[in-house]
């Protein structure tokens, strides 16, 4: 189905990173799942991540050691965070960790777009709703929010 | 009076276009919604009177709605701007940011 973008709305590429406006980062919890990246979609904006969108995630623990064994999940939540759904799940090794060299520097998934993980099924979020990335630790380490690197590519619609 | 009934049945056909094309799209998954409307409407229009004369009128409505949807981008709206494609039966539902994002998310990049 072709949807024409109506007058007053622009469709633009969108990349969510750890530095994106509206993103808040938090430390992980050892041996538990924690919300480490939270992005609330700004007003007058919606985002879409079609099937095949590229995703990379890298993190270290508070002792500056790379995380290898956890699970990264992308979740969607409503504006009140009352309902959450997991829309993508990866072992952390599949999306970015596994090679040393600074904060994600030189990692294939970050240096080479073609090597990033692909989202299996598309999803979208509207204004005020949340896109959350959780990390479930399995090696007794605490993910350090200062050591998160993230790339999630998609599309944004902005009301102008 | 008979004309009015014919018109009403055509209107019902145009309104039911979504149901008819939805069914056809399930049977033929590769066919887009507007083409499905043309196929279904055309078949009902040309062969429908074998079942009942009103089926032909109903098919005409579906066909008109399909043509309307196919050509909706060609005719600019009064006051400027192309329509968002209402399927002949003009959609009054505004295209919201959320619906745009949902439609985009339904695409496959690879």
Whole-number mean pLDDT of chain A: 87
Helix content of chain A: under 10%
The N- to C-terminal Cα distance of chain B equals: 55 Å
Q: Multimeric state of these chains? A: heterodimer
Count of helical regions of chain B: 5
- Write down the domain tally of chain A: 1
Descriptive notes:
The complex is a heterodimer of chains A (160) and B (110). By secondary structure, chain A is mostly beta strands. Chain A has one domain: Jelly Rolls. Chain A is 5% helix and 42% strand. Chain A is built from two helices and eleven strands, in the order βββββββααββββ. Chain A has helices spanning 92-95, 108-111, and strands at residues 9-17, 23-25, 33-40, 45-49, 54-58, 71-77, 84-91, 117-118, 123-125, 130-136, 149-159. In chain A, strands 1, 4, 5, 8, 9 and 11 form a six-stranded antiparallel sheet that branches. Chain A is globular and about 50 Å long. Chain B is built from five helices and no strands. Helix content of chain B is 62%, strand content 0%. The model of chain B is unreliable at 80-92 (pLDDT under 50). Chain B has helices spanning 2-15, 17-27, 33-47, 53-71, 97-105. The longest helix of chain B is centred in the middle third of the chain and has 19 residues, at 53-71. Chain B starts with a helix and ends in a 5-residue tail after the last helix. Chain B has 110 residues and is mainly α. Chain B has one domain. Chains A and B meet through β4, β9 and β11 of A and α5 of B.
In terms of topology, how is this protein built?
The complex is a heterodimer of chains A (160) and B (110).
Chain A: E1 9-17, E2 23-25, E3 33-40, E4 45-49, E5 54-58, E6 71-77, E7 84-91, H1 92-95, H2 108-111, E8 117-118, E9 123-125, E10 130-136, E11 149-159
Antiparallel strand pairs in A: 1-11, 2-3, 3-10, 4-9, 4-11, 5-8, 5-11, 6-7, 6-10
Chain B: H1 2-15, H2 17-27, H3 33-47, H4 53-71, H5 97-105
